[in-house]
Design goal:
Length: about 260
């Protein structure tokens, strides 16, 4: 199905690595104008070069810290001016450190809150500043099945992703009248094919930093679809929800793309 994303201006935060990279390349293959917003511009430039090869109408990288509102506002200004508006935002930046809650510290909580929640607030607020006057748009936030399941060693992160789900539903209700759709995609464990598909700050920079190969195999066995997620699995769900043609009557939804790990309803 043609998703009608050709020429659309899309911002992908955290687009230099793993899932965000696949999302940026997915939009590129649909002929979109892609802005990659990331702290790691060197990795971002590699993705942008690939995006142009894949068919992006334009691709640029803007060094951005999503936790800093001024940085986010500068990102949107640049993307708007260079790419003719802001049609889609993908709030993809996220970060976690696997630890039992009893081992965590308030400093870690603050870092998790800034990256996983304040970053989404900064980008969504700024996107709405452009999308409301323009008469429409799509915002997709990358949440996590940890928000729905309760995941050991992800207490604070899972709670923040649940906050993102709730926030996005409210934003969907407040802004549907402006033709702005807001949805979430929840990945389960989603691993890059190679470390070349990650950035300097990536949680997956070292292949087994999060899980050993034995743990990956054990996780795969528990999933109905019997395999670990690939970044493109998440990108496909994001592009579907971002497409006005495919998902024009879908808003306020939380969609798991996790091989059946989470089944709600
Ligand atoms: N990979 C998984 O297994 C998994 C599972 C569930 C949810 N998620 C969610 O999916 C999203 C992407 O995960 P991933 O595995 O691709 O992450 P990743 O660590 O590979 O990449 C994250 C990117 O975000 C960038 N970044 C970090 N902090 C930033 C900031 N303050 N401002 C701008 N850029 C910043 C990093 O430089 C990096 O390029 C996250 O929201 C994550 O929570 C991932």
């Amino acid at each position: 199905m043609d998703l009608d994303l050709q020429g659309k201006s899309v911002i992908v935060t955290g687009g230099a690595s793993n899932i965000g990279r696949a999302i940026a390349l997915g939009f590129a293959a649909e002929g979109a104008r892609v802005t990659i917003a990331d702290l790691d511009t060197a990795a971002g430039e590699r993705v942008a070069a690939l995006a142009l090869k894949e068919g992006a109408a334009a691709a640029r990288v803007v060094k951005t810290d999503v936790t800093d509102l001024a940085s986010v506002q500068a990102l949107f200004q640049e993307a708007n001016d260079a790419h003719g508006g802001i049609h889609c935002l993908v709030n993809n930046v996220g970060w976690d450190k696997l630890m039992f809650f009893t081992q965590t510290t308030p400093d870690l909580w603050q870092k998790l809150i800034s990256i996983n929640y304040v970053g989404v607030l900064n980008c969504t607020k700024t996107a709405l500043d452009y999308m409301v006057p323009a008469g429409g748009g799509s915002i997709v936030s990358i949440s996590s099945d940890a928000s729905r399941q309760g995941e050991p060693r992800e207490a604070v992160y899972g709670g923040l992703k649940a906050a993102v789900n709730s926030f996005m539903k409210t934003i969907a209700k407040e802004n549907g009248r402006y033709n702005i759709r807001c949805n979430c995609v929840c990945p389960g464990v989603t691993v890059p094919d190679t470390v070349e598909e990650t950035s300097e700050n990536s949680m997956w920079k070292e292949k087994n930093a999060m899980f050993t190969d034995e743990q990956f195999a054990a996780i795969a066995k528990t999933l109905p679809l019997r395999r670990i997620g690939k970044p493109s699995d998440i990108a496909n769900a994001v592009m579907f929800l971002s497409s006005q043609k495919a998902a024009g009557f879908i808003t306020g939804q939380i969609l798991s793309a996790s091989g059946g790990y989470s089944m709600i309803g």
